[in-house]
Structure to design on (251 residues):
């Protein structure tokens, strides 16, 4: 894993977006459609904003997939990740081929249909983050590191639900759904390249555990250390608890 630390969150996001844009251009130069998995949430806002301004990307040659979505939440809800991607990526770029997890449909049918499309060809790039509890997508601890299913139904733990509430996506904790569809850990690892963004002090403890502790289902994002082409982007706050040796080793 390569670790890149920035003093400023916006500089971090801009650098991450440039790596994403460069990867997409590289794939397109080969004559193929670029297959992209996009993450959602507060940590992705600046990255997606910078990415949509990048030059030299024919977005009609991009196939977009979705990491996770709450079960039973209408796509019109402010916390809907389908809505997040439509407003912040799809509508701004004109992506035509997108495979979103429609939370209003039957979860089993959604997972089957989207998983079939996901597995139809290799994924070039996955964008992910690290949750305050160390989760990867909605794979909360202890995460399933073994399933080969592309998407699974998960129960959200209280730390995850508290994070969604504190970030302002829901008016009360009681309204945060308890179940979600999540891309599985092993499916995320099948992407040829992974770009992970984690910013702000609230992520510092999770970042430290995932980078300096054991690779373990109790720290789901720790599994990214086993991937051959992962770059982790941190700001000064999310990296604050890391040792100098960890930063040097990932530099």
């Amino acid at each position: 894993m390569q670790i890149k630390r920035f003093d400023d969150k916006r500089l971090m996001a801009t650098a991450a977006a440039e790596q994403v844009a460069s990867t997409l251009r590289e794939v397109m130069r080969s004559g193929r459609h670029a297959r992209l998995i996009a993450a959602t949430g507060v940590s992705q806002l600046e990255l997606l904003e910078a990415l949509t301004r990048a030059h030299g990307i024919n977005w009609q040659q991009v196939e977009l997939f979705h990491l996770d979505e709450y079960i039973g939440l209408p796509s019109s809800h402010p916390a809907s990740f389908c809505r997040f991607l439509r407003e912040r990526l799809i509508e701004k770029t004109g992506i035509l081929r997108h495979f979103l997890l429609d939370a209003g449909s039957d979860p089993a049918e959604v997972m089957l249909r989207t998983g079939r499309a996901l597995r139809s060809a290799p994924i070039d790039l996955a964008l992910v983050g690290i949750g305050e509890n160390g989760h990867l997508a909605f794979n909360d601890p202890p995460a399933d590191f073994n399933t080969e299913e592309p998407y699974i139904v998960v129960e959200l733990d209280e730390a995850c639900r508290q994070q969604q509430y504190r970030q302002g996506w829901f008016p009360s904790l009681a309204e945060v759904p308890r179940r979600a569809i999540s891309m599985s850990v092993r499916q995320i690892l099948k992407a040829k390249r992974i770009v992970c963004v984690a910013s702000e002090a609230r992520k510092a403890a999770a970042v430290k555990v995932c980078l300096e502790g054991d690779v373990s289902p109790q720290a789901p994002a720790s599994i990214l250390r086993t991937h051959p082409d992962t770059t982790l982007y941190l700001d000064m706050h999310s990296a604050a608890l890391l040792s100098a040796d960890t930063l040097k080793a990932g530099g």
Observations:
- The radius of gyration is 17 Å.
- Helices lie at 9-29, 45-51, 81-93, 107-118, 158-166, 185-189, 204-212, 244-249.
- Residues 143 and 160 are 13 Å apart (CA to CA).
- The chain has a mean pLDDT of 94.
